Give the backbone structure.
Amino acid sequence: MWEKVFLLCQVLLPCHCVQTLQTLTMAILPKDCSLACIRQGGPECDYCRVSIDDINTNLGLKSPKLFGGCIPWPCFKLLGEEDPSICQHYVQAPTDVNIDFLPDPDPNSDSVVVSWSPSLYGISFLRGFQVILQPLGGSVAACQLFVFQKNLTLYASHAERVYKSDPIHGLPLGSQFSLTVMALPVPEKWENFYRGKIFSTRSCAEKNGLHLCKADWYPQHVDVHQRGTVTTITFNLAPPNLDIKSYFSVCGTNGKTTYTEIEPNYSKNQTHHSFELRDLTEGANYTCEIAANQMDAMRKLFSFQVDRQEPVSKSPTWTLVIPLSFAAAAIFVVLWVVLKRTSCVQMKKPYFQSDLTSSLEEGKAQEEVMIPPENRKNPPRLLICYSSNDGPAHVNAVMKLGAFVQQQMATQVTLDLWDSLGLAEEGHVAWFCRQIRESDFVLVICSRGLCRKSEPSEESIFGSEGIVGLIGAEVGRAKSDGNDLSKYMAAIFNYSEDTDIPTELGLVFRYKLTADLPKLFSQLHQVRIHAPGRYVKIKNISEEDFIRSPAGQALQEAINESAKAMNDNTERFGSEEKNNDRILNASE
């Protein structure tokens, strides 16, 4: 009898399990509900969106701008007034946070929807979620609040469910955002209640295609043809809808640059155009760029070598034939004797030539171009620390550096400017201590104001000297324990000096940016740039070509602006000191 029952269960259970699994894994979308329905526990209000107008109307609250329309401690505000115990339990952060792109008719913006699953830990006390989207270096762009009805209870099996947010529209293309998904309730002393993620919206070319993006378009096909000393270059023209009427080309060799303006005749050919370069140096290697004559246009890089022209020889006269014949015969005899003796030497010492050849081959280093991985599963985590005492221009340069490292070096960057929520929840000291402990690397941007005494405030974090003290203590502890110090690094921009690096960081690696960007990449990814017979060149990171990327251009502009601001401050402080000395001398 038991065997029959067991066999029947084996037949029926798979169908039931499949149906249950489909029910649990089906994405759950938010519904339009009222706060009254949520508080009364109506079954139709199992997963509801809560709008700003609904909160203001029913609770009389004005949502703070800091949270972009959401309210702090939403569980206590919405569900905890009648029964505070509902909002006093610990709930672990959501898992499997994903971003999906949606079709968007606006060619200049992107739309996304966020999905996640609840954590198994504390799921029976889960009351809802809050989704916050913030551009890197900016204020909150979007905030959505989702609440369960009062009497809903979830079980362990519901951890397989997938919840979705409302679509978020109007995100600029080619921008980076910080996404935070919080689990409710959030007790005051609980830390692991949210999950953060950084993502980038699609570029114009990825969303619309290269033929619809003027800023991203560049000539993809370039052909070089040489005829004597004249070099003809042919390239494809932009589509007519981009309204690009002119182009330019820049070619250089040995410090000499040739600039050519190009205005195609579209009546002859609307897809390709050819132009000529004359008076080029024979045998020289030329590196050229061609682009549309537009602001910040993408450039196509190509190179070629100018062929040497064979000299035209005149027919010799008969009076020179006989002497040249005797000379050629004499040279032949001498060469035969030399070759004969050389062959004898090679027979006696056959290893000499092979050793010389191998040593010469080893001396030629082969250049290898490396492209950093874009979607590495476990990228290194880098915490960047800095001082705000040097003004907003220096802070902007640090922020642009963080964006460049994250985009071009396949590194997950942590910056206090990008985690205002975490700072507000944990406090500055606790936040920095946790980040130093959890990061794989810590980079301190040193400047004149780093060790300047300042009153602890929101603007100055908790004092620049506090950052140096924390990291200096960690470096000293690692040194005394005999641990590796490669986790800690110090760097200065080109407008700072080595003397700006505090003595507490005297044992760590030092870099000067932007010249040492390849060395910084080497330490972050444990990649040897120089090796015997091999040289690794990282794409868009070296000092010569890092500005080819938009993030590199933004970094260079920010550094230049900060350097100018530093010089202006130095001149102003110098004039003030002279005036003070003059007043002091007059009073004496």
